[in-house]
């Protein structure tokens, strides 16, 4: 064929209807041949390769999250998550494990570790800054440093959607990436915040939660890629993918089944109980006049025993919320003054050696109960001392017995309470602001030590003088 000859006509391409092309475009397009799969993997690896944007947005996200924990504001935390970097390097890490590319595996792993370290350091600096303002409520930090079943479900859904969206579309999957960043970066930043602030119960719980969440998401990401026919084709791919999957499963099983930082119970209902048990008030005043001793042993020389030698005043309040009516009851149905005067007069007239009367006062006051009701969290922390060592976490709705003593530490009032959980008694201190008093208490002012009242000998002398002089 010369240059002047016309070129032979190519066979016409088959005509594909528009509806068919749209249907094919919506399906999972993963080539079955080796060349097509290699081309697709190169394209995905290029899109998932970490860039400087990963580190820039990690710094911005970590700074905002630190401010959110500093101000204990959920709105600021959400704003920080919206600035989180696109987590496509996480998918690149999973792809490199399946393809057996060691260099790409370590590059993406190093990029994810560096970005995570930047977020952790930002939370650490915010924790150091909040030390000046302690004690204060840190509900968001405590909330995001614990494992929760709903978070695991959301994390699995986010990992699956992010993987599928990244493989099927050329667009950047921002929404599933934000969902994944919310579950990963919030406990990581809370861990650094807890380490910097020195508040117990946050570090290292938040770091362990981050490790569990990362392993949990990696399991579902690898399984999703395998379902999309991204299977390992060489020995390195089998070793890396199987090893990554095995390590992730071991981390999830071990860290979720052991230790005191495991998944806590879901918060109780905030509805008030229908009835709160109350202990009746028992006020007993016993006046004991000991038996007199004489020099003779004949029974005729002894004065007649008076049935009023022992006087008891007992008042029992009914187990209701109405005020108790304190009505004195005397065993011999006579007045206290007349009885005490008659007994002392007989002892003086017969010149008997008597011991001074003793007064035993036993008072058991009505206990005050309160319900834990933290507005911005699912519960509150019980500590050994005001702003001291962490003991347990009390969920909203938990009933505690409030003691009369409170303490004011830097403008924050701590209440002394007793809680019972799993048939075990805990006595410690909790923020007064998270307590909803269930029974009324007349006086509840901050004080360093509870006040006590005692009867002195002068009081007894006054009681004796009043008793003998009253007609």
Which features would summarize this protein structure in a list?
471 residues; SH3 type barrels; elongated; 5-stranded antiparallel β-sheet; 46% helix; disordered C terminus; alpha+beta; 3 domains
Question: Overview of this structure, please?
Answer:
The protein has 13 helices and 10 strands. The protein has 471 residues and is of the alpha+beta class. The strands form 3 sheets. The protein has a 5-stranded antiparallel β-sheet, with no helix packed on it. Residues 1-16, 18-28, 259-334 and 447-471 have low confidence and may be disordered.
Order of helices and strands: HHHHHHHHHHHEEHEEEEEEEEH
Quickly give the CATH architecture of the largest domain: Up-down Bundle
What is the count of β-strands? 10
Percentage beta strand: 5-15%
What is the total number of structural domains? 3
- Helix-and-strand structural type: alpha+beta
Give the overall shape.
elongated
Kindly provide the name of the CATH class of the largest domain.
Mainly Alpha
Helix content: 40-55%
What does this entry show, briefly?
With 471 residues, the protein is of the alpha+beta class.
């Amino acid at each position: 064929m010369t240059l002047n000859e016309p070129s032979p006509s190519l066979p016409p391409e088959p005509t594909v209807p528009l509806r068919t092309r749209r249907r094919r475009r919506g399906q999972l397009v993963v080539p079955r041949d080796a060349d097509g799969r290699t081309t697709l993997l190169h394209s995905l690896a290029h899109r998932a390769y970490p860039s400087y944007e990963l580190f820039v947005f990690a710094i911005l996200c970590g700074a905002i999250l630190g401010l959110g924990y500093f101000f204990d504001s959920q709105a600021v935390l959400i704003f920080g998550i919206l600035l989180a970097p696109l987590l496509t390097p996480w998918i690149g890490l999973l792809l490199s494990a399946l393809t057996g590319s060691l260099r790409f595996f370590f590059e993406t792993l190093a990029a994810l570790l560096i970005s995570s370290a930047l977020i952790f350091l930002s939370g650490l600096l915010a924790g150091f800054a909040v030390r000046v303002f302690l004690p204060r409520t840190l509900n968001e930090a405590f909330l995001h440093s614990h494992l929760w079943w709903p978070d695991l479900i959301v994390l699995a859904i986010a990992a699956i959607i992010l993987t599928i969206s990244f493989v099927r579309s050329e667009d950047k999957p921002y929404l599933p990436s934000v969902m994944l960043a919310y579950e990963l970066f919030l406990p990581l930043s809370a861990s650094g915040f807890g380490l910097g602030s020195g508040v117990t119960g946050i570090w290292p719980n938040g770091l362990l939660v981050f490790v569990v969440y990362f392993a949990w998401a990696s399991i579902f990401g690898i399984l999703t890629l395998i379902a999309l026919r991204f299977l390992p084709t060489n020995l390195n791919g089998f070793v890396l993918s199987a090893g990554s999957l095995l390590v992730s499963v071991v981390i999830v099983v071990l860290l979720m089944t052991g230790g005191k930082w495991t998944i806590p119970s879901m918060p109780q209902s905030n509805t008030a109980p229908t009835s709160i048990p109350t202990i009746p008030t028992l006020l007993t005043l016993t006046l004991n006049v000991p038996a007199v001793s004489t020099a003779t042993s004949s029974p005729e020389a002894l004065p007649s025993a008076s049935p009023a030698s022992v006087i008891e005043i007992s008042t029992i309040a009914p187990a209701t919320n109405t005020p108790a009516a304190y009505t004195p009851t005397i065993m011999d149905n006579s007045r206290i003054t007349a009885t005490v005067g008659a007994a002392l007069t007989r002892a003086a007239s017969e010149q008997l050696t008597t011991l001074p009367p003793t007064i035993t006062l036993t008072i058991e006051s009505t206990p005050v109960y309160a319900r834990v009701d933290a507005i911005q969290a699912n519960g509150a922390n019980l500590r050994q001392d005001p702003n001291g060592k962490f003991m347990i976490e009390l969920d909203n709705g938990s009933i505690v017995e409030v003691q009369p003593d409170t303490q004011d530490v830097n403008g924050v009032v701590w209440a002394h309470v007793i809680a019972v959980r799993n048939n075990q008694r805990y006595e410690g201190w909790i923020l007064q602001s998270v307590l909803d008093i269930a029974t009324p208490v007349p006086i509840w002012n901050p004080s360093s030590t509870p006040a006590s009242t005692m009867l002195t000998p002068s009081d007894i002398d006054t009681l004796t003088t009043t008793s003998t002089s009253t007609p």
